[in-house]
Amino acid sequence: MSYNKENMVNYGFVKVAAAIPQVKVADCKWNVSRMELLIKEAEQQGVQMIVFPELSISGYTCGDLFAQRLITEESEMALMMLLNNTRQLDIVSIVGMPLGVNATLINAAVVIQKGKILGVVPKTYLPNYKEYYEQRWFTSAAQLVETSVRLCGEMVPLGTHLLFEACNTTFGIEICEDMWATVPPSSHLALQGAEIIFNPSASNECIGKHAYRCSLISQQSARCLAGYVYAACGFGESSTDVVFGGNGLIYENGSLLAASERFALGEQLTVSEIDVQRLRTERRMNTTFAANRANLGIGAATRIQAGLMNSKELHLTRRFAPHPFVPQGTALNERCEEIFAIQVGGLAQRLHHTSMTKVVVGISGGLDSTLALLVCVKTFDKLGLSREGIVGVTMPGFGTTDRTYNNALALMKSLGVSIREIDIKAACIQHFEDIGHDIEVHDVTYENSQARERTQILMDVANQVNGLVIGTGDLSELALGWATYNGDHMSMYAVNTSIPKTLVRYLVQWVATHGVDNDSRNTLLDIIDTPISPELIPADENGNIKQITEDLVGPYELHDFFLYYFMRFGFRPSKIFYLAIAAFEGMYDRDTIKKWLHTFFRRFFSQQFKRSCLPDGPKVGSISISPRGDWRMPSDASSAGWLEEIEALK
Prior knowledge:
This protein is of the alpha/beta class. The chain is built from 20 helices and 20 strands. 39% of the residues lie in helices and 17% in strands.
């Protein structure tokens, strides 16, 4: 991949891999030779930590051969070969083997690096039901009293409480069935500081099991606010009674980053990068995480430091969606349906609480006011109220074009709401005369006067009909302060207040294809295609929109990307810049991204005073800038540190 040649390590990423080798059951030397090749291949790809399946040195399906001393001794000899042949490599490897501990045999995960054994983690929960019978051969970690074991000629740490520090992160290990327990060991490891969990596994395949397994891993990585790297046995294991699909899975806080091909005949490396900085931010913000550790009385784990790694230039292979607020595929319809339901639910409760049966909405023919009107229509239908109680007010001004004007009227008519048309030009001209403003000067006074005149009309109409003024402004506009203070900035209930601009379009399109008549649908589709504009400056000589918002403040898709990573994860400008270059490769160059990143932070800080007095409105996603909810920021906060970092970007 060609984008972004900066070192990902500088931004908190750790490159990990789940390896699925071919095995020959009970042929330890052959198995280790395959593992060695995969380790070296992973090292060449810049992988810093790699995990192999459960009992990968011997093979998982040895059965009663585990009772043979030859297997355990050959496993140890094979491990010595692996240590010797990877002595020059920085990569941290987690391999599985049967290991004798005094008079017992354990199912062990062995952590190695640079020819040394860092520690051994025994399996705790040994399945002994249905097709599993591990207790026939192995002893659970819960029954061990030993805290060290002699392996390959040296005493090494042994236990489930081991945490390993490498690559500027901390990781822990649980083995296969451990994850399926009611309270998995990884829960305790995460509370003790593990940011990544590795799971060497041998879970076989059955109908429906794969989806359930993925659900478990996703949920556990989310509960632990951790990365989770899972490697399960594949081709070469015995198929006497079961089949192994070779699952390599990498998750980050519930999200799948990479997956192997199931039932592949060849060997596989599943590689991705886990954002440890992001995980740390999640844990710091989620105070329940720290409280959970305190309430459970979990003590400190034994920490083992890996050897220093040579400095490498590592680059991202992981992709970042340019539109983080907009899910892909079928999930988009589900997201739109849920958001729309939240908006409708919020407005329905507000109308019920105030005992009002009328609302007033300013209809411009643009996306935001269209979405607000659709929410009102759905809410009135849900409450069994007449749509005539929705008073749509279109207020043509100096910059209103025929396209938006006609779309506003057509939409209100097709939806069956009450229509009022109030031209604001005469009132604004009178106002300009009153304050001594030259109407030919199209400055901020010229623009804001129109916005405030419209808000005054809406408020007065609301008083007249005893209704609520419904706000139309969206999250992106509020983040940038792209709203006139005490103009379109103000309402009695703001239904779009936490919906980003990049998602508004999809919501309107979703409504257009779900439950409106053909006339409304055609109008909605044309509104979707209309350039975003406040229409406060007169149109051009051809009657087309002259004032394009994104030409003035920058592309909303960039600003929404910046907003997401700034507010959701607290990333520094330099990291947001790094991710934006990756996400928008081929769309925007570095200078363009830097320019609008500077604009975003400058405006975000300077416009906080507008957000400090926002009207009520429903939170629909992970980000909200309500001063009563998610975002409490002083209006006097300085942006100097953020802007200086942006200016220093290359």
